[in-house]
């Protein structure tokens, strides 16, 4: 049987945009309830309440089960957690920006108006990305291990330099330039490699010669039917606001999509 696709984040927030559906969620977070008991507080027909419940079910916020003649509804914690995680990331970013603003307003300056060394900040964040590819773990792992293949999907055509020493203790270096023309270096050191199972490495993004983001990344390869589910988990320390968590996660998703295109090309007739 084919699994139903996971509801989108848009569906979750669209479901919560309606006050009646928020009221239903507020009741269900206190515990499971039958459809008839859920309908009592609302000045509408049972059929109308069922329509609202169906929206919540489709969005992944509520699930139901029928025992005998009674249908019971309960909160699906995973659906609420997705909305909570999204809001938490936005809150972290906004709080970081407020901290930066506070530094700008309160830090002493010299006669030229430049901020002194108190203009510093640290933001720690993490994210995980999952992708499923059509080839087995050995083939997906090989795309990380081979220097030529890795350069195509990871470094890309705009990179000025890419080198890969793929072994525990080995280093990978990619050099390029920002849109403003500033030199960029992304340097990784591999700490643990288990073929077709996992890769663990630490990285530093440098603008000119200054480190702006330090990260630790774990990549896991899991057999999935005839293909591979790849799970990448990254923990990041962002220094002085040069890079933001959203930018880093978006970039990672982009090169994992490029890996998918690279792998798809190898199985195309």
UniProtKB/TrEMBL annotation:
Gene3D superfamilies for this protein: 3.30.530.20, Winged helix-like DNA-binding domain superfamily/Winged helix DNA-binding domain (1.10.10.10)
PROSITE patterns attached to this UniProt entry: HTH_ARSR_2
InterPro entries: ArsR-like_HTH, ASHA1/2-like_C, HTH_ArsR_DNA-bd_dom, START-like_dom_sf, WH-like_DNA-bd_sf, WH_DNA-bd_sf
Domain of life where this protein originates: Bacteria
Listed Pfam families: AHSA1, HTH_20
Chain ranges of the HTH arsR-type domain: 1-95
SUPFAM superfamilies per the UniProt record, alphabetical: Bet v1-like, Winged helix' DNA-binding domain
NCBIfam families: HTH_metalloreg
Recorded family membership: Belongs to the AHA1 family.
Name used for this protein in its record: Metalloregulator ArsR/SmtB family transcription factor
């Amino acid at each position: 049987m084919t699994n139903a696709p996971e509801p989108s984040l848009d569906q979750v927030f669209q479901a919560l945009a309606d006050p009646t559906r928020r009221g239903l969620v507020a009741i269900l977070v206190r515990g499971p309830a039958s459809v008839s008991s859920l309908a009592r507080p609302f000045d509408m027909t049972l059929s109308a309440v069922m329509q609202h419940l169906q929206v919540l079910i489709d969005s992944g916020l509520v699930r139901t089960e029928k025992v005998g003649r009674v249908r019971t509804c309960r909160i699906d914690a995973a659906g609420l957690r997705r909305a909570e995680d999204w809001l938490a990331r936005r809150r972290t970013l906004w709080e970081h920006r407020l901290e930066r603003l506070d530094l700008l307003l309160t830090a002493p300056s010299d006669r030229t108006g430049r901020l002194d060394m108190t203009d510093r900040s640290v933001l720690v964040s993490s994210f995980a990305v999952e992708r499923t590819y059509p080839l087995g773990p050995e083939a997906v792992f090989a795309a990380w291990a081979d220097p030529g293949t890795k350069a195509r999907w990871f470094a890309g055509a705009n990179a000025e330099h890419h080198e890969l020493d793929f072994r525990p203790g080995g280093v990978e270096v990619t050099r390029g330039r920002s849109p403003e023309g500033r030199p960029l270096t992304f340097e990784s050191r591999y700490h643990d490699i288990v073929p077709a199972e996992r890769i663990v490495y630490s990285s530093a993004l440098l603008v000119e010669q200054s480190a702006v983001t330090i990260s630790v990344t774990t990549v896991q390869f899991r057999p999935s039917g005839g293909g591979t589910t790849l799970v990448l988990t990254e923990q990041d320390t962002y220094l002085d606001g040069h890079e933001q968590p959203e930018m880093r996660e978006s970039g990672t998703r982009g090169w994992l999509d490029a890996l998918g295109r690279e792998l798809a090309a190898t199985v195309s007739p």
